[in-house]
Amino acid sequence: MIKMTNVNKTYPNGTQALKNVNLTIQDGEFVFIVGPSGAGKSTLIKMLLNEELPTTGRIMVNNFELSAIKRRKVPMLRRSIGVVFQDFRLIPTMNVYDNVAFALRVTNVTTREIRRRVPYILNLVGLAHKAKAMPEQISGGEQQRVALARALVNNPSLIIADEPTGNIDPEMTYEIMELMIEINKVGTTILMVTHEHDLVTHFHKRVIAIDGGAVVSDMPENRRRA
Amino acid sequence: MTGSSFRYLMKEGARSIWSNRMMSVASILVSLACLLLIGGSILVVVNINSFLDAIEGQNEMSIFLDEGLGEIEINNIRTDLERIEWVEDIVFISSEEALASLKDDSNYGALLDGLEGEKNPLPATFRITLNNISKTAEVKDLMERSVGVDEVRAATYVADILTKVRNGISIGGSTIVLLLVVVSLVITANTIKLTVFNRRKEINIMKFVGATDGFIRLPFIVEGILLGLVSSVLAYFVTWGYYTYIVNWTQVAWGSGSLGNLIGSLVPFIEIAPYLLMGFIVGGLCTGAVGSLLFVRKHLKV
Q: Which residues of B make CB contacts under 8 Å with A?
């Protein structure tokens, strides 16, 4: 669960990125975060990942209180979240299999378990046959599926996707979206930042709009269906 | 950390050397060059010192005794000499021995016949060598004031020059070595910094999938240690090669001629080898490990 209470963020240069943000995202929800460039979407994501701290206010993510989290607990928080970035962020010197396995290795999972789980996840995203390929040898859409596999392999309760379809072609975009919907169906919370209006209208999910650092609208899934 | 994670991180460090092989080769070459320069300077200083030792060893002091001294008085002088901490070697030559040796060494043996016994003009002598040539004047002064000593002859002028040269070499040599060490550290540090900077994205990704700082750091440290080890072992063998070549060359070139006698031979590599290898390895390992540790830390603050 994510709960932000009266969150404000002002950067040292004086830019106020978030203004009094209050929002709650329940377990198992699928939420789109939309808004123009510079609206504060990236800052919001950075805060959920503890990359930035709020200037004032409280943030709870998966039972971690982020304004008071100890440095050594940050890796535990991040293991409970799967992150997918617009630029995929795969490790260029590791093949597809190792990129996914890496997320398990950092959590001290045994080699035996890694050998069991990685092929399963790669199969799920349809990339079992590309396990040995290096990131540069596969397409953007495939790279994003590897990133998604990496985000999923730890069975996180929350997936944060920052414009995951921003760098891939429209056909692939829908494939990635379908995968996300499937993941959401098994109970994983999905928080997806996007610019793409088509996606938001096509998939009837909760939409939180941010502008000028403030939440300007929050439309629940059931109202959008109606 | 489990055993399999640890093995993985070790392997990861080694793998990363291969994946980033251009940078790895660059850092090995940089450390190699630095270690060779430092090793070379140390070898020069060691050899100059050994050369000075050889010259100093030949620098004897002769203490001529008064005529007609008894055994007790001679022994008193010997005791005086033994009490001086800088005296290395004491040889007593009686008047008879001095005469016999003069007869043997010169072509005028027959002319010296009949000078035995009371007519012997040669005084009994102590020939000593010092372990610290800079104390020549002091020892000379001390012995001149001893009862039963007629005259002390020592090359105080030569001793003076040698002392100055040795001091100069010590100060100059250690300054050069120290400077090279500092320059090497700066260059190596920069190479490591560049390597880490090249991989900052990788570190960033590791942070986002929940890797602890220790987990991220370990492969870099393993990498630093391995690169340091390779550079130091290479530096050792290269130094061994060129030094042995120089030693052999000087033996042939100087031969047993007067230059060879004067300079003596260079210090054999085997005498310096353990210290050099140890120094190289400790230097290489520490710079690699500490450097990686310091520069990775900067990128961990995400």
A: 1-2, 4-5, 8, 16, 19-20, 201-202, 204-212, 215, 302
